[in-house]
Amino acid sequence: MLEIQIGPHAFQLLGDKGLxxxxxxxxxxxxxxxxxxxxxxxxxIPVPIGSTQGxxxxxxxxxxxxxxxxxxxxxxxxxxxxxxxxxxxxxLTSFFTRHREVTFTLIRGNHxxxxxxxxxxxxxxxxxxxxxxxxxxxxxxxxxxxxNADVYLCGHLHPAIEVGSRxxxxxxxxxxxxxxxxxxxxxxxxxxxxxxxxxxTGDRVWTIADGxxxxxx
Amino acid sequence: MKENPNRRTWNPKxxxxxxxxxxxxxxxxxxxxEKSLRMPIDGLGLPWRLESxxxxxxxxxxxxxxxxxxxxxxxxxxxLSLMLTHERLLQPLAGVESVIVDEWHELLGTKRGVQTExxxxxxxxLNPNLRTWGLSATLGNLDEALESLVGSHxxxxxxxxxxxxxxxxxxxxxxxxxxxxxxxxxxxxxxxPQVVELIDQVQSTLIFANTRxxxxxxxxxxxxxxxxxxxxxxxxxxxxxxxxxxxVEEGLRSGSLRAVVCTSSLDLGVDFTAxxxxxxxGSPKGAARLLQxxxxxxxxxxxxxxxxxxxxxxxxxxxxxxxxxxxREGHLEARPLISKPLDVLAQHVVTIAIGGGFRSDELLNExxxxxxxxxxxxxxxxxxxxxxxxxxxxLTAYPEYHRVVVNDGRYSVTERRTTTAHRMNIGxxxxxxxxxxxxxxxxxxxxxxxxxxSKLKPADKFLFAGKLLSLVRIHDNIAYVKRASGxxxxxxxxxxxxxxxxxxxxxxxxxxxxEAADGKLIGREMKxxxxxxxxxxxxxxxxxxxxxxxxxxKTRDGHQLFFFPMDGRLAxxxxxxxxxxxxxxRKRTTFAIACNDHGFVLQSPHEVDIAAAIAGNVLSSESxxxxxxxxxxxTEMAKRQFRQIARVAGLIQQGFPRSRKTASHIxxxxxxxxxxxxxxxxxxxxxEQARREVLEQQLETQRIVKAxxxxxxxxxxxxxxxxxxxxxxxxxxxxxxxxxxxxxLGERIARMQAELEIAADSS
Lengths: 217, 763
Fold this sequence. Notes:
- Chain A has helices spanning 36-42, 51-66, 86-98; strands at 2-6, 9-13, 19-21, 26-29, 70-73, 103-107, 124-127, 131-133, 136-138, 151-154, 159-164, 169-179, 182-184, 195-196, 204-209, 212-215.
- Chain A is of the alpha/beta class.
- In chain A, strand 8 and strand 9 (136-138) form a beta hairpin.
- In chain B, helix 8 (192-201) packs across helix 9 and helix 13 packs across helix 15 (378-389).
- The longest helix of chain B is centred in the C-terminal third of the chain and has 21 residues, at 742-762.
């Protein structure tokens, strides 16, 4: 965990790829892509079960650790319509039941657009971007910092930094990326890829390796 | 003809149904093959319909063929597998009397070869009297090639040897002044004048280089030397656009081109009028390969095959001498086979499930008639069935997944979507992440690796397709370029394709060096190296075949340990890693490693007592596999290997039913698949296969084991020369190559070389 300050706000960057806003006890995550493996199976591509549960376990851990009372998902909560398979719905229902004290909000992302009706029993509030909490703006796609916002939180990019020299590639590390007041969160889903970013000078980047957050630049 | 002796009853309007299948490894060859086959058919006036069916065929023709197949058909392994997905073609395929597999040596030992074996097993099942013909170049393991072709249950086989002992003339261009200190790299271009002279003496020449970047460099040098050859010489390699390649092939055929600089891309392809001369630049890596390339000249019977060898360093001259001896004695390379890859089998099982379905025991028996799967266990078979039916083994059943369904013991595919996706993804060839290279307005030049192009900045100049280009911009996975002048900043480097020296040629090389140790220098090549051997002997040792030479030298950069097992680059990579790992276990230190076909070097900041380490079993073959896994990033390597497996087993779909926007929802990288499987289904046999393929193919573990066994009975000679010896020099340069930029490399090498020459002359 690493504490950072953006404008007047203090945040914690968590090793499980979430962002904790201390003042409001709110936990932000992005791109969970629940049920992505079910979508693959639906299309005849064999992918084992487990990644949706793995993602939920990561969130549970962060909720327990931060004692947050709100969870906000910054888009792409589900992968596709076919992601809402029986086992995925069951896993999520039991997740919601176990966290009755938490309020859940989904800021819609591009993958959530075609979902159709979600189970009505889920205590999930849906919101279109851009949403606001105090002077913090929330969305899915990266944008220029909206007027009157101190910071804009989003996802979508699945940002990662390539580590290593040209010869010894050590691989990619998922990261938080702050660019002109727009803070991009790493993708949380266990079965999601990453995309390399090239940060500009003046940007700030924090990488995550083995659950440890480190300042990159 | 025996059945229908009366020619008057032959009716070209009613050709007989499918009788003959001709399988060619390259679809580009299908056209040529069709042309050659048409000659005898027309000559005899046979009323046959002859057609090709490959990935390049028009869809209208393919649709027509689904209604009625021609009498004789030229096709590729992929298209044949595709035909097996059409149930209605099974009956006509059962009528095939002969199947001819062309260039079998090219398919043998590859996953495409395995795919072919499975298809042949299917054809034999459909017609037990099928006659199989295979055409193959000379191989060290013709018996295995034969068995792979006809299956393990075939009763009658016969081998026919073609025109024997075509006259062969192999010579080397020996530089006037032999560099005592050979170094690898673009040194060979110093021989451009001699090569130009040779090309000038004949009508047509093929120049083989080992890498695509070498072809680009040589093409430029030849043109600089003879600007009047513009338009008369050309370049040919696998990254060029099909239209460019076809133009070159046509030019060779019509005789309008004097010379073509090429890679193994022109190893295949039958119907070029033979060229007058073949030039091989750099190590041929194997005797069979050298022989085959030489055979591209003087193709007609009675003609002499002529090959000139251009060494890029002095040790390659020993390699050539060794290769010549191997050819004379008929010791040609065996093509190592691969053992029962489950990814290819899974793909085949889905193919058959679509093409009419199957019962488990029937298909198992059929599959076991192929040589590659004859030892397939019931457990492995069950796993493959589970994989296509449930996704994983029964314990980790994947919900809502069904590629293949079972009904009353019959396996079949019911979903149209599965069928379409499978047909689009049949095959085992993995497309590299490549980007098109294209003029801003106008034609496509070819493709280069994305990893190379994405590192370029606009206005960077690079050589490609024989032209100096500068990058304008990259947009939508296309690199737009324009012509440039001046000097290139970079030459594209294509990954892979760097073959190691074959184990047969390595053995022959050790013998040749051993002869030199005894003062026997046989042949022009060996005699020209007298000076080099003298210096090597004076400063260190020329090792005999039953000796392993190790040189410990202290240079400005640190302590260097040179090992010369002479066993090919891949095996050396594994050996170097294991030895470095074991040495570092004895004493904390760090090693930098470099390898080539002849040896490897370990550099460390601390001195290593190598004699004591060897006594402590640093070179033992015990717990080798475990030490390989510990010393190399085996997981990373397995991940890379998993790319092909994921593609063949149908995890990654290369093509998707077109105009479906949702396709991007089911794309994931093979790395991601690897991670998810490792985490949530670690017993998945495809992971096991990836690890096995790394050991067998990427590291040639069998060769490492054999090398260590040989070393165990060898005398270890440890020398401590004061200076870097002729044997060690290329390795030192290779190491430098990894560290410093290519611009100053040339200067630095020249300086080192000059210093060493002075030392050799004065000592």
